[in-house]
Amino acid sequence: MKKGKLVVYTGYSGVGKGTIMKELLKRGDIRLSVSCTTRAPREGEIDGVNYYFVSKEKFEQMIAEDSFLEYAQYCDNYYGTPEEPINRMLDQGYNVFLEIEVQGGMQVMKKRPDCLSIFIIPPSFEELERRLRGRNTEDEETIQKRLCAVEEEKKYIDKYAHTVLNDDVSRAVEEIVSILEDNNE
Ligand code: 5GP
């Protein structure tokens, strides 16, 4: 069976990556990697579905055991991609999306140079701040940290092979689907 594509999928906090991803998952040939994190679950998030929510000790043990394809610290928490499930899904022919921030993205591009990389950008930064505040899931301190992270993440956009503007969810989904098709050699 033909192996699937590994896709580094990055975008600023609040840009709408999750909404686009939900639509992409309806296609059937795409799987989303479930990351481990030390951050607390948000309202409605389910362990094993949105993330594996683990303690700092457990996360550090997994680092020591070399369980991660990549991991990074973002706004005071660890986030990482367990490697084994990724390889299994790719072997089964699925296109596997890693919804990760830039530090992790850089690690994956280095380790798996054949991966695809997509960065989702907002129509404007005012719009981004409005969306981040509008979802009401973070306190002011966390929002400020996430807005600072945006400044840092901007520096990495040109390392990504594709940037997709999220001006309209279905349009962005179509663009990502055509990127996948173009790279389906
Ligand atoms: P959130 O706390 O909003 O769920 O995620 C914060 C940031 O961490 C987002 O940019 C998200 O894409 C990123 N992230 C989620 N999982 C991982 C992961 O496994 N590795 C890395 N490097 N970043 C991740």
Q: Could you outline the blueprint of secondary structure elements for this entry?
A:
Layout: E1 6-11, H1 17-25, E2 30-32, E3 36-37, E4 52-53, H2 56-64, E5 68-74, E6 77-82, H3 83-91, E7 95-99, H4 102-111, E8 116-121, H5 125-134, H6 140-154, E9 162-165, H7 169-182
Parallel strand pairs: 1-7, 1-8, 2-7, 3-4, 8-9
Antiparallel strand pairs: 3-6, 5-6
Helix pairs in contact: 1-7
The structure holds guanosine-5'-monophosphate.
Guanosine-5'-monophosphate binds at residues 13, 35, 39, 70-72, 74, 79-81, 99-101, 103-104.
Return residue spans where pLDDT drops below 50 for at least 5 consecutive residues.
none
Overall average pLDDT: 95
- CATH topology call: Rossmann fold
**How widely separated are the two ends?**
14 Å
Strand % is 15-25%
Bound small molecules, deduplicated: guanosine-5'-monophosphate
So, CATH architecture? 3-Layer(aba) Sandwich
Query: Compute the gyration radius: what is it?
Result: 16 Å
Number of strands: 9
CATH C-level class is: Alpha Beta
Task: Tell me the major beta sheet.
Answer: 5 strands, parallel
Considering the protein shown, what is the CATH homologous superfamily?
P-loop containing nucleotide triphosphate hydrolases
Spatial shape: globular
Order of helices and strands: EHEEEHEEHEHEHHEH
Order of strands side by side in the largest beta sheet? Answer: 2-7-1-8-9
Number of domains: 1
Structural class category: alpha/beta
Tally the helices: what do you get?
Answer: 7
Helical amount:
40-55%
